Amino acid sequence: MLLRILGTAAGGGLPQWNCACPGCAGARLHPARRRLHDGLAVHGGGAGGWFLANATPDVAEQLESHPGLRPGTGEDRTPVVRVVLTDAELDHTLGLLRLREAARIDIWCTEPVRGALGARLPLTDILTPYTTLTWHDLPLAGSGRYAEVAGLEVSALPLSDKRPRYAADEPSHPAWSVALKVRDPGPGTRALYAPAVAAWSDRLGTEIAEADRVLLDGTFLDEEEPRRTGISRRTASGMGHLPIEGPEGTARRLGGAGARVLYTHLNNTNPLTDPGDRAHERLAGLGPRVAEDRMVVSL
Ligand code: MLT
Ligand code: MN
Ligand code: ZN
């Protein structure tokens, strides 16, 4: 399978339009540091084509940036109309509105996510006059079931009940936020995409250890980053994102799997957005690296 990394930034992207923090200022000065919202295009290798993992507000530019994702000249004008969602966050779903020119959009997601996108945003009502939305159940990993998308087996590993802020009063559910587990049934290779890890679990550790490549929540470098930079009164984990470093951080928990991990969903306050920051060296010692926009990973 092929993973095309379409973006690696948390909400707002890098730079964020209303922010002049060192990370955003650095990205304005050095265009190579710019990052679009995190998302992937995934190809099964066969004739099954691509699917998107999340549809970000940048989705049209992201598709346009890669020749393999552009439309052909024949009747197939919209080659990418399959979207698998990790959650119902605005930064992972607003791109569905930008895909409205498609004749049909197939969407796979968990039950609470579908509920939020049907009733709270409400994407279904808005998009129905433009295109045909077809909703599919995204089975939970370990249930023995999976969705077959682009020739790949896709399932959801529940991560937390973190609801989008616009749906904060919706009932709790363990699958509001999930990791996507993607398995290529031919070679048996596996990828895991987990852009919002609110808490560590043995199950997550096992899935990471068994995956050939992991795209992991790298929103914040350390627990105090949101408070120190003034973007929130909460800590990183209080905002639903375990930090990379520190005693509760994810980097130290990776063990031997570290070398197969790429951090994504970087917030604009994260020092790792500066390629010269010393944190890159500390991270390299533990194995994981930072994902970059337009990276292609072949498994
Ligand atoms: C998150 O990743 O925590 C969310 O996207 C934040 C938000 O937009 O509320
Ligand atoms: Mn986010
Ligand atoms: Zn900023």
From TrEMBL:
Q: What does this protein do?
A: May be involved in the transport of PQQ or its precursor to the periplasm.
Its family? Belongs to the PqqB family.
Q: Write the protein's name.
A: Coenzyme PQQ synthesis protein B
Specify where the region named Disordered lies, as residue ranges.
226-247
- Read off the NCBIfam families from this record: PQQ_syn_pqqB
**Part of which pathway?**
Cofactor biosynthesis; pyrroloquinoline quinone biosynthesis
Keywords for this protein: PQQ biosynthesis, Transport
Annotated Metallo-beta-lactamase domain ranges read: 50-265
Q: Is-annotated flag, keyword Nuclease?
A: no
Spell out the InterPro entries in the cross-references: Metallo-B-lactamas (IPR001279), PQQ_synth_PqqB (IPR011842), RibonucZ/Hydroxyglut_hydro (IPR036866)
Lineage top rank: taxon:
Bacteria
Q: Which gene encodes it?
A: pqqB
